[in-house]
Amino acid sequence: MQENNSNPQDTIGGDAAESAPTNSEDTVAALSCFRCGVCCMKYQVQVDAEEASRIAGYLGLPDDEFEAKFADRRWRGRGFLLRQVDGACVFLDSDLGGKLRNCRIQPVKPKACDDWTPGSNRPECRAGLARDWHLSVNDAGQIEGSEERLRLYMDFLESLRGKIQ
Ligand code: SF4
Ligand code: SF4
To answer: 20 to 30 Å CA-CA from 126: which of 20, 105, 153, 154?
Structure first.
């Protein structure tokens, strides 16, 4: 995994959406993925040849065409590095005015993406909370903000149920 400035980094992700329990009117415990896509913007995903071939097959492309379209040609390391377009992974789509980001290759996404877990300690998840929902995380790891913003956020999480992809 590479940060999108091409410095070595770790992982990525964005899928399971589960609603979190409400603790009080202005805090929410735990943080589940709310599909902000910040992690898919911050990092470039490294895939090995097997993963690349699997994704190519999913897209109905020959391996060489997949590489030509989706691999970052600047990469000199092992395997491939997925390209970024407009500051995000080439496979990231957005919906609902940009609040909901979807991975176009979710069923075959790279292991690095699968292994990424959201959390209130993640700067990426915190950045997405602040950017999209104007919410923050307190020292106890609880999401906090105005009652109205928390309600909108919880409603959004609820709307994602059954839409996990
Ligand atoms: S492959 Fe999917 S989950 Fe992984 S960085 Fe790209 S858009 Fe995000
Ligand atoms: S930054 Fe966190 S909440 Fe946003 S898509 Fe990634 S894992 Fe999910």
So the answer is: 105
